Amino acid sequence: MQSILICDDDPDIRAAMKRTLRGYDVVEAGTSREAMALLRAYSFDALLSDFNLATGDADGLDLLMHAKLSHPDVVRFLVTGNRDLDIATRAVNEGSVHRYFLKPWDDDKLRAALVLVLRSKA
After folding, report:
1. Main-chain dihedrals φ then ψ at residue 49, nearest 5 degrees
2. What are the pLDDT digits (tens) for 60-99?
3. DSSP-assigned states of every residue in 50-107
4. Domains, the chain, with CATH or none
5. Burial class (CB in 10 A: 0-12, 13-18, 19+), 4
6. Which of 89, 70, 56, 55 is nearest to 47 (CA)?
7. DSSP class of 8
8. Half-sphere exposure (CA, 13 Å, Cβ side) for 67?
9. What distance in Å separates the CA atoms of residue 45 and residue 72, rounded to the nearest whole number?
10. Is residue 104 reached through a cis peptide bond, with omega within 30 degrees of 0 on the bond before it?
11. Is-contact 64 97, C-beta < 8 A?
């Protein structure tokens, strides 16, 4: 079973994301620091992160960039309610994400994109 790490500071969003990703082994993190520790300790096939993380230690794009450098084979999705075009541009131009989704996400589109990118990595 493929494993996915989700990082969002909102437990309700993490629960919704976990429902969307049923069928995968999903691990949750509430902060980028927690997610980075999990990345060091375990192997994941994908990382889905929010941009705005309330803890202030790092934003989701920083987390995804860290994952790109330390675990380049991990599929990286940014799932955010932030509609700032600069964030999307940064995410794509820096190559830190494979896909960018706005909240609320479409479950079917998110799952389909994840399946497609995971298959292309295999």
Report:
1. -135, 145
2. 889 999 999 999 999 999 998 888 888 888 887 877 899 9
3. -S--TT-S--HHHHHHHHHHH-TTSEEEEEES---HHHHHHHHHTT--SEEEESSPPH
4. 3-121 (3.40.50.2300)
5. buried
6. 70
7. -
8. 39
9. 10
10. yes
11. yes
- Would the pLDDT of 32 be above 70? yes
Count of CB atoms within 10 A of residue 53's CB?
Answer: 25
pLDDT of res. 97: 92
| 31 DSSP 8-state letter | S
What's this model's pTM, rounded to 2 decimal places?
A: 0.93
pLDDT at residue 40, rounded to an integer: 95
Tell me the CA end-to-end span of the chain in Å, nearest whole number. Answer: 13
- Counting every residue, how long is the chain? 122
Residues 6 or more apart whose Cβ sits within 8 Å of residue 108: none
Read off the tokens for 73.
């084979």
